[in-house]
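hey team, just a heads up i'm posting the complex here instead of the shared drive bc the drive is being weird again. everything in one block, sequence lines first with there labels, then the predicted structure for the whole assembly after. its two chains so it's a bit long, scroll down
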Amino acid sequence: MILEFLNMNGYGLYVISAFAFTLMSFTVLYLVIRLQLIKEQKKFVAKFGALSSNKAFEAKRQKTNQEILATGIFSKI
Amino acid sequence: MYKFLMKFLIQNKFFKSILKYQKYVLISFFVILIIGLFEALVLSPQDYLQGDSVRIMYVHVPSAWLALGIFSIISILSILVFIFKNKNLVLIAKSLAPSGFIFNIIALVTGSIWGRPTWGTWWAWDARITSMLILGLFYLMYLLAWRIFQNKSYLTKITSLIAILGAINVPIIKFSVDWWSTLHQPSSVKILSESTIHSSMLLPLLLMTAAFALFSLLIFLMKYNTELIKIKNKGLDRL
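-- predicted structure starts here --
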């Protein structure tokens, strides 16, 4: 039954490889973009930690900075 | 209206709230993808001529549609960048490009895989395939320009110019099957007139398109988030 489904009347290799390539591309792109996001978030947290108290106070007043810090090092997804 | 739009784009309020919903986009993508895959691989019927190889259509066609659609949006945004000089539009265009490029590659590769059992060849210098390859090259140039050029104002002009020049290729891709005699069949799904595709095949096609569009939205949100943090990182350096 499963072999019959995978064979798809002789077209299985073509169909499965097309779907597999698509899903693999999605996974690679997702991981690359996620790694870039994590890298930038880590960089932000490190830079923020290195600021003097006055500069940190000034930077913390900005809403977007608060939001980046609130999400933590790792993105929620 | 213009003032409202600019305020909306400059303040990023819309995107700030959307960024919070990334998780829901991811969940929706998975749910629709699983239903779409089941419909495409199990429930949808074989084609009377192509047999089961027609199932490749469910990944090939949505990818091609999205690659074209995303490039069209990038081109429109690039024209608006020249008119309004809005940096946020540049960021939106830049964040859309990676998913558009991947969809372009998927369309080319799955098209090639589909071509082998259908036409007996992996590749042909056919009008539709060649114009899709050219679109892929425009995507590549657009993405490479962001990495190569350093000067900010020059970079915006170069990337916008690439996107606007690439837009000339978009109607060529769309109408290539009507203008030239090609291996490709004319479009079966039409917006303005009646589609020639049966509903049993249209449903999985639309489901897969919805899933791919959600994936594209997810990648866009993540990339946009990354770009915003990059700007904030530079802002911290200036403090």
